Sequence to fold (650 residues):
Amino acid sequence: MFRYIVRRLLQMVLTFFGATFVVYALMFANVDDPFQALVGDRPLTDSQRAALNARYHLDDGFFTQYWHYVKGLLTGDFGMSLTGRPIAEMLAQAWPVTVRLALLSIVIAAVLAVGAGVLSGLRRGGVFDTVTLVLTLIVLAMPIVVLAPLAQLIFGIQLGWFPPTATRDANLYELLLPALVLGSLVVATQLRVTRSSVAENLRADYVRTARAKGLAPRRVIGVHVLRNSLIPVITLIGVDIGALMSGAVVTEGVFNIPGVGFNLFRGVRTEDGPLVVGFVSVLVIVFLVINLIVDLLYAALDPRIRYE
Amino acid sequence: MTDITARLDALPGLDPRAPLLQVNDLHVEFRTRDGVARAVNGVDLWLNPGETLAVVGESGCGKSVTAQAIMGILDTPPAHVTGGEVLYRGVDLLRLPETDRRGVRANRIAMIFQDALSALNPVYTVGFQLAELFRVHRGTSRREAKRRAVELLDQVRIPDARRRVDDYPHQFSGGMRQRVMIAMALALDPEVLIADEPTTALDVTVQAQIMSLLAELQRQRDMGLILITHDMGVVADVADRIAVMYAGKVVEEAPVHDLYAHPGHAYTKALLESIPRLDFKGQPLSVIRGLPPALTDLPSGCAFHPRCAYAREICRLEPPPAYRIAPQRITSCHFVREVLGV
Fold:
């Protein structure tokens, strides 16, 4: 187990450098004229341009620039955004709100998905099962670029049940509507996986044994079927947490939540290379760590899995 | 909690002098989209304490379905018990309320299954799965239940039981897993044990160990054992009586030695002739032609007639009655005389 964790951590180092390198190269290739993008319509003098180029090492070759960047990263220096703010500070402000949003939405999604999934798995072909099937299909078919503004318009503006936008210090209630929208990305898949997992485990031989032991149906399902059925679902939920933290670009944009996705989107639009690479680097780490935790959790849930 | 044992002893109609287990005219069908499969079509069985009844027959003849119907663990739907009785000491289990029925399971009638690996829950330790019985049925404390679990593992001769009680099913070998299954079935001292092909998934030496363990535990406890198998070799060693099933019916029932010496049904005879024998080495093995009938479309008359060497017109037209050809010997064959050679 310990050796497995060490090996995974070493793999993470490689993945981290690979991912930042690729993102860095992409931003490097994409950069057209960041300073013009920065100043907008105003003119930029040659001397200003030269000074900025020198400050951001933009005259150096690609590898030299990457080297400068990685050196900074390893010493904890994320550098400055092209807007002149330290990226570390932006990260510190953006992450808490994104984490809150992602966790709130995964909790809502998981509770809904597992609850409804177990029920429809137990009564396959019943009314509840059919209704959830139709609903999940609708949710799956609805892209978030449609769902987010629609939810904002209906529940935020017309009905006024929720505030239509959220701030950096948003409380859970303000984040509820965006969290619901965000959760819709993952709830359908989780529900279907739960349902098929429950249905499959109900047919397993050990369920027959549990019944032969004279256990009440509630115990057969609650103790024997559920634990086995939830193994794949937990894995999925773990992976989804990572996806929600990074996938909140549209939702955060629509609801004006100053989180990671919001900053990332702005960085891409303004060709702010350091900002994009900085945010993606942290995202990569978060993703890798969550994946590692999920894998370890998997072993804890299923005793047949042992990591050497 | 109410004491389950006391409640079971007070079941209405319970008669200690009545036969331990008696199945009368049991019918089970599976209603599926492709039609109705008649898996069990009037099975009659009986079992006394301390006795071993072997139920033999080809795959799909309804042996396991009969066993699961006795236990009351058929999946309904698609399976439906459409008729008959399952009498435990005179009480018809099929008419018991669900809570009493549940109490009968494991406490009075227990069952072990063919593949112990899939029959045990992979994510709980064997100790948990054993202790669960005491905790649910006896209200025993966690600690005491675990102590009893270790005791049981000891009884089925699992070495180092104290340590192994915390292991998971996949950490045991096939034979050891089947021992765990047996321990689980015997935990609450049932009077009847139904063993559904308990040794099929094991290799031959382990088979013998498991069978002798079962026989020994049965003797100690004076327990009735229904042994479901398709291995005629296993049966000869351990069974007292044999019930041969074909297409959901018991076609012949007899004390084991009588049946081997003088089969009274054309199917039994064909079944025995298809066992490879050392003294027939080099000769072609006799087989039963064709396949077991589809349960959705059973042949008329005697279900065995399309495959039977003795079959004549009457076999196609009329189902054979049950002939009592000796005490404890029943056979349902129109040509019982010819089969017996008398």
Notes: The mean pLDDT of chain B is 85.
